[in-house]
Design a protein that fits this description.
By secondary structure, this protein is α+β, with helices and mostly antiparallel strands. The chain has four domains: about 35-45 and about 305-390, Beta Barrel (conserved putative lor/sdh protein from methanococcus maripaludis s2 fold), CATH 2.40.420; about 50-55 and about 200-300, Elongation Factor Tu (Ef-tu), domain 3; about 65-90 and about 170-200, RNA polymerase II/Efflux pump adaptor protein, barrel-sandwich hybrid domain (OB fold (Dihydrolipoamide Acetyltransferase, E2P), Beta Barrel), CATH 2.40.50.100; about 95-165. The chain has helices at about 1-25, 95-130, 135-165, 215-225, and strands spanning about 35-40, 40-45, 50-55, 60-65, 70-75, 80, 85-90, 170, 175-180, 190, 200, 205-215, 235-240, 250-255, 265-270, 295-300, 305-310, 315-320, 320-325, 335, 340, 345-350, 360-365, 375-380. Helix 2 (about 95-130) packs antiparallel against helix 3. The longest helix has about 35 residues, at about 95-130. The two termini are about 55 Å apart.
Length: about 400
């Protein structure tokens, strides 16, 4: 009996010691969790929309032969930039020069015959004033003179045609731009059926062409119609490597029809494409934009707008949509459903659901529970600078990524 009592006392002592150790290891319960809060305030942001576009040359010319002959010379460097009027190809000229000479000789022969006909007509008209003259002789001389005059006009037209064909033996650049490789080399016979010999595409400025949905087009029209239309929009480009292209462009065209298969409209902007400092036009890589290149198009408003903004990190998401935690007068966290407008990477624009001046929790969200008390303090100020050119700007109504550890998300 005494052994059982001793064992019971030993077990009770062990349990008490274990509970004491667990109590010491468990941290003491403190007050409400500390959170960082910001006040919802009116801010100025630049509206921006992103689209996928393609660079397109303003002018494009396909060089073709307009006469038939042997291609004697190619006078350009493939891939180089050429100037308007530069001689690019030369076709053999002797056959065409011979046609010009023959046409000139024919004109001179007819002019001589015409002069003789004029003298004959003058003598006939002089004899008509005397008793030996006859009206029929005058009529015949007049008809001969008129016929030769018409033949001269036809011969001059043939001479002009021969001179035009002779000019076609020299193919010059009709525009400034970069020329492609040649499709036909020297020594081959070229003609109208030979197809394109080479292509020239202009370099500065360039077009950027991009399709947008009809709904987005209506939104843009509504947004900027009262602010100056096209003049209220600036085009920026994000290049394939992520860099923002330095020169800005202007929107200059909106297609008048909607594509039936995609329900989109096409917009176009003009943007400068200057030569890099320290390089020569025509060198590989001397200009940033290339015809046919894919880019990201950023449409930005010229003037910033005033919106109700909060830090993007304060916005959480679940199956019901976007929401934030606000701190009420009793320092309790309350869930507030919000509707977002167009936002930037650091600022969420609240279109509905939040009043100016309310305190929104932006730090310590993982410790917040709805309806429970919190200990609010000013949140760490976020950097004010936006990425150059508004890179990463979300489209209207975009859902921001939930903050790490926030309710409704998985760690």
């Amino acid at each position: 009996m005494s052994q059982r009592v001793g064992a019971s006392c030993l077990l009770a002592t062990f349990v008490l010691a274990l509970l004491s150790v667990q109590a010491q290891a468990q941290p003491a319960q403190g007050g409400p969790p500390a959170v960082g809060v910001v006040r919802a305030e009116q801010q100025k942001i630049t509206q921006s929309d992103e689209f996928i576009g393609r660079i397109q040359a303003v002018n494009r010319v396909a060089l073709v032969a307009r006469v038939t002959g042997f291609l004697e010379k190619r006078l350009f460097i493939e891939g180089a930039e050429v100037k308007k009027g530069d001689l690019l190809y030369q076709i053999e000229q002797p056959p065409f020069q011979a046609q010009v000479d023959a046409a000139k000789a024919s004109v001179q022969q007819l002019e001589a015959q015409h002069r003789d006909a004029e003298l004959t007509l003058e003598r006939a008209q002089a004899l008509l004033r005397g008793p030996a003259g006859q009206q029929s002789t005058v009529d015949t001389a007049l008809a001969q003179e008129r016929s030769l005059a018409a033949q001269i006009l036809g011969a001059q037209a043939q001479q002009q045609t021969a001179e035009i064909n002779l000019g076609y033996t020299e193919i010059s650049a009709p525009i400034d731009g970069k020329i492609s490789s040649t499709a036909v080399t020297e020594g081959n016979v070229v003609s109208l059926t030979s197809g394109t010999l080479a292509t020239i595409v202009s370099q500065d400025p360039m077009y950027v062409v991009f399709p947008i949905s009809l709904r987005a087009g209506v939104d843009l029209r509504t947004r900027y119609a009262a602010k100056g239309g096209y003049s209220a929009v600036v085009i920026k480009l994000r290049l394939p490597d992520g860099r923002i292209y330095a020169p800005d462009g202007k929107l200059d065209y909106v297609s008048p029809t909607v594509a039936e298969n995609t329900d989109t409209i096409t917009l176009r902007g003009a943007i400068p494409n200057p030569v890099f400092p320290g390089t020569t036009a025509g060198q590989p890589g001397s200009r940033e934009l290339t015809d046919g290149e894919f880019v990201t198009v950023l449409l930005e408003g010229v003037q910033p707008i005033t919106v109700l903004g909060i830090p993007r990190a304060a916005v959480l998401s679940d199956q019901e949509g976007d929401y934030v935690y606000v701190v009420d007068a009793q320092n309790k966290a309350q869930v507030r459903r919000v509707q977002l407008g167009q936002s930037t990477p650091s600022t969420a624009v609240v279109a509905n659901g939040l009043a100016e001046g309310e305190l929104v929790i932006s730090e310590g969200l993982q410790r917040v529970r709805p309806g429970e008390a919190v200990s609010p303090s000013p949140a760490t100020p976020s950097p004010q600078a936006e990425p150059p050119g508004g890179s990463g700007v979300a489209s209207p109504g975009a859902t921001p990524a939930p903050a790490s550890g926030a309710p409704g998300t998985k760690q």
